[in-house]
Amino acid sequence: MTDQAKDAYFVRKCALALLGFKTYKAYLSSTLWGDIRRKVLTEMPRCRGCGGHATSVHHNRYNLEDLDGRCFDHLIPVCGTCHSRAEFTKKGVKVDPKMATNHLDGIRSSHQKDWQAQDRRECWKYFFTVLTDIRIYLGMDESFEARTLVERLDAAREALPKKPMKNRKKGKSDLR
User: Fold this and answer.
1) Sequence-ordered list of residues with C-beta below 8 angstroms from that of 56, at least 6 positions apart, any chain
2) DSSP state at residue 30
3) What is the DSSP pairing of strand 165-166 with strand 173-174?
4) What does R_g of the chain's alpha carbons equal in angstroms?
5) Contacts of 172 (CB under 8 A, 6+ apart)
6) Max CA-CA distance within the chain?
7) What is the pTM of this model?
8) Is 165 exposed, middle or buried (0-12, 13-18, 19+ CB in 10 A)?
9) In the 8-state DSSP scheme, what is residue 142?
10) Domain ranges of the chain
11) Tell me, what DSSP letter sits at residue 53?
12) Within a 13 Å sphere around the CA of 119, how many CA atoms are in the beta-carbon half?
């Protein structure tokens, strides 16, 4: 473990003691952390590293206001894979939280095209959701024009880019 990591984990231990937790494991099992984690993952469901579905929350720092839920600025949604890749070096040495965040940003840079493609897909999905809501609002369920519009809407939705697939030859993702 690096010296910076030791300092960060000492700050965490002191903050947890002020909150009444004996260990970090006890904190992670608490309803306090469960509520904080749920809020972060609800508001930001994408992994900061790869852009996939976030399942964990990374602490960029361990100050009291971060651990008690008063500040969410230093809580970062991540998937398990990116979280592990960010927090440990290739030799298995645990790094401090800020260095781990820098590693996450590096992972994100390497996945930038995937992020952009995912943003485009989300934008189109939202657009079609709005169109569907408008159709329902206008009561266009029975007419020939409405059925034609729905068929065109469904055809356009089917034409959306699918999830990124790994290109076996180049090792990069493309849309299919």
Assistant:
1) 77, 78, 79, 80, 83
2) S
3) antiparallel
4) 22
5) 113, 166
6) 71
7) 0.58
8) exposed
9) S
10) 3-110, 112-174
11) B
12) 7
Buried-state track 78-105, b at ≥16 Cβ within 10 A, e below 16: bbeebbebbbeeeeeeebbbebbbebbe
Angle subtended at Cα 75 by Cα 69 and Cα 78, rounded to the nearest 5 degrees: 135
Q: Which amino acid is at 168?
A: R
Nearest-angstrom CA–CA distance, 121 and 160: 7
User: In DSSP terms, which residues pair with 78 in a beta bridge?
Assistant: 56
Q: Which residues of 22-36 are buried (b: 16+ CB within 10 A; e: fewer)?
A: eebeebeeeebbeeb
Does position 73 have pLDDT exceeding 70, yes or no?
yes
pLDDT one-digit tens code per residue, 134-173:
666 566 556 676 667 777 777 777 776 665 544 444 444 4
Reported residue count of the chain is 176
Q: Using CA atoms, how far apart are residues 51 and 72, in angstroms rounded to an integer?
A: 19
Question: What is residue 91's predicted lDDT score, i.e. its pLDDT?
Answer: 83
Tokens of 45: 């469901």
The two three-digit tokens of residue 84, written as one number = 């592990």
Which one has a higher pLDDT value, 5 or 170? 5
Using the predicted structure, report yes or no on whether residue 3 has a pLDDT greater than 80: no
